[in-house]
Design a protein that fits this description.
The chain has about 55 residues and is mainly alpha-helical. Helices cover about 50% and strands about 0% of the residues. The chain has 1 helix and no strands. The radius of gyration is 16 Å and the shape is elongated.
């Protein structure tokens, strides 16, 4: 019984993450994990400035 509950819990978390990613991509967010994803310039080479080091 515990295995079923744990499996359902992991499935819910995974499903929520997938839905979030799909929603953000539909909005046009370039870098989902980037704190400045709303202000990323797609004109830059390589896309988002959060990838620069």
């Amino acid at each position: 019984m515990v295995d079923i509950i744990l499996g359902l819990f992991l499935l819910i978390i995974l499903s929520a993450a997938i839905v979030y990613i799909l929603k953000e991509k539909k909005k046009g967010t370039k870098c989902i994990g980037c704190p400045m994803s709303k202000t990323c310039s797609s004109a830059k080479k390589g896309g988002c400035s959060c990838n620069e080091k």
